[in-house]
Design goal:
The complex is a heterodimer of chains A (about 280) and B (about 290). Chain A is mainly α and about 280 residues long. Chain A has two domains: about 1-40; about 50-280, MetI-like fold, CATH 1.10.3720.10. Chain A is built from 13 helices and no strands. Chain A has helices at about 10-40, 45-50, 55-85, 90-100, 100-105, 105-120, 125-130, 140-165, 170-175, 180-210, 215-220, 230-240, 240-279. Chain A is globular, with a radius of gyration of 23 Å. Chain B has about 290 residues and is mainly alpha-helical. In chain B, α2 (about 20-55) packs across α14 and α4 runs antiparallel to α13. Chain B starts with a helix and ends in a 6-residue tail after the last helix. Classes of the chains: A mainly alpha (about 280), B mainly alpha (about 290). At the A-B interface, α1, α3, α4, α5 and α6 of A face α1, α2, α4, α5 and α6 of B.
Chain lengths: ~280, ~290
Amino acid sequence: MRDGQPTVLPGFGLTLGFTTFFLSAVVLLPLAALVLLAASTPLPQLLADVTSPRALASYQLSFGGALLAACINLVFGFIIAWTLARYEFPGRKLMDAMIDMPFALPTAVSGIALTAVFSVNGWLGRYLAEYAGIHVAYTRIGVILAMTLIGMPFAVRTVQPALLEVQRDLEDAAETLGAGRWYVFRRVIVPAVLPAMLTGFTLAFARALGEYGSVIFISGNLPMKTEITPLLIVIHLEEFDYRGAAALGFVMLAASFVILFAINLLQAWGRDRLVRRGS
Amino acid sequence: MAGGAHSGALEELDTRPGRETVLSALARRCLIGLSVAFLAALLLAPLAVVFASAFQDGLRTYLHAFTDPDTQAAIRLTLLTALVVVPVNTVFGLSAAWAIAKFEFRGKSLLITLIDLPIAVSPVISGMLFVLLFGMRGWFGAWLAANGISIVFAIPGIMVATLFVTFPYVARELIPLMQQLGNDEEEAAITLGAGAWMTFFRVTLPKIRWGLLYGVILCNARAMGEFGAVSVVSGHIRGLTDTMPLAIEALYNDYDFTGAFAVASLLTLLALATLALKALVERTGYRRR
């Protein structure tokens, strides 16, 4: 059997050819340029670029902040998804539509808006500073806040359909058989939505890790303190230090691929469980 | 996202016996309260602050912000970029979905993964790729300079960077949709003598129109709002290579907050329109896969 044969439909060569060509030109060639540049850098120099104190501090903030933000989203994403999937209340539809806002809102806008809300004289930042002594804008807390906002839709949108699919009769059966609410939650609901929660967590982490626009306004961008890795890449590029930028970019790209791989595994795991439960 | 499924599940909830206890009512209130508080602080407050700041000095100052020639140039550049990038990626998305959904071939899942790749790449890295290729010290930098072509720090760079970051949006919407719809109707049309283009326009396109619209809306929102990737390649030349998001940054860094938030308010309206259109498309029964 030749590729593309079991149908009478036309256009296989044309569409596959165009797709592959365009993909190669727009995505693969540029990615190859980055990988080759990083790979052609002498190893000691590459290591020095990748492990400079400033780079290490930026990883700590980027990876650590993204991890914390993803954890916050794991909790609140579940709560919001649960609220949307299980409760009826006025404004539910509006809330449901609003969840996708961070997808649709340009990151520069959410960046300056968050900064305005959480700066010391902002609507919320004022009270946080006065009553709790917490300064959000221009600190690491602000970075994590922006990363949380940007990852939130992923956490909600993966868990929400999974919650709707939980077999309600299973919950009823467990309850009829004398299981308490908490027990049902732990033994029926959580196992059913766990793959979705982890997928959402990973997607939120990935997005927060690479985020630039909404973070740089609220972070204050102090070297060693509130400087994320993407910003450090931009600084290298502005100094025409392509090698240094490519080295850091390579680290982030490698992290993205690991995450992408993890997401694929998680989704396969989720499907697997669904099939087994269904049979 | 799934209006139909929701209302079904909620109706079922009403008929379930013995669900409402004091404790569950309390949990319900707490969880709704937590959700509302979280979203109000993180979504609603920033949204409101955009308009409050844009109008803080009155309507006149707000409107005056748009008489600035650099701001007008930024708006034009953003529109131009979307006008070029969105159709190109729509054609690509249709082509990719046709090849992937209608035919069997080796390496298909690899192709799908590669199409999705730009979503996983940090915006800054997306922009950097094109600096490494076309920048002064990039692969083609010397050749481009010798021939007097500028891509980086010029409009073509903004176009390709936007093309890269919005690359998967239409394709990833259409591929699962067309896979699910199957080939039967197209095969019938071809067998009965319809031409290839006629089959596409009269049989396939009507079936996938909502999914296509959905993808185009998302692609457009990202194209108009992209910041990181475009910021790296633009060079920030006011009035020439600043798009609207970059103009916001420039105005903001100049402490022209009213101006920055005025431009931001336009992009916020675009985001709200995007969400409203998305909701409308979902009301037709279109479900993301």
